[in-house]
Amino acid sequence: MTKPITDRAEITLELPEKLYLGSFGRSSRFDAHLDSAGLSLLFDCPGDAATRKSVHIHIRFALFADILRTLAETVPGLPPAADCNDLREAARVLCHALAEAAGADDAPRMSEEEGELILRLME
After folding, report:
1. Is residue 83 located within the same domain as residue 36?
2. How many CB atoms lie within 10 A of CB 103?
3. Residue 107: is its pLDDT beyond 50?
4. Helices (H), the chain
5. Mind listing the pLDDT tens digit for each residue in 64-74?
6. What would the pLDDT profile of 79-92 be if each residue is shown by its tens digit?
7. Between the CA of residue 39 and those of 3, 17, 21, 115, what are the distances in Å?
8. Domain that holds residue 11
9. How far apart are CA 33 and CA 15, in angstroms?
C-alpha cells in the first residue's frame, strides 16, 4: 500500500550513453517494506502515459546493513543545524520493531551495539 511522499526523492540512473533523472515530490507516492531477503522501495508518480513514472529498488539485508553503517560514519560531518529528529525517531521505531520480531520467532536479537549504531546514525 503506497503512502504520500512528505518531502522529496531524487533519482539518477546513469548507464553507458544514457542518463535518467527523476524527482518524486508531494504529488507522488511511495511504498517501503521488508521481505524475506531485504528491503523493497517503490517511488510512484501517477499520471497519464507522458508523465507517469515509477522506480522499484530491492536491497538485500547485508547491503542495507552496510549502507546504514556507512551513513553512521558520515553523521559527524553533518552541520549542527541539520534537523534529524524525524530520522532519529524513525530509527528508534525500526530498532524496536526488529527487536520485537526477533523475540517473536527466536531469531537472533539486534545487539546493543547494532542498536546504538542505528541511533548514532540518526543523531
Report:
1. no
2. 10
3. no
4. 61-74, 85-104, 112-122
5. 999 999 998 99
6. 887 788 888 889 88
7. 16, 29, 22, 18
8. 3-60
9. 27
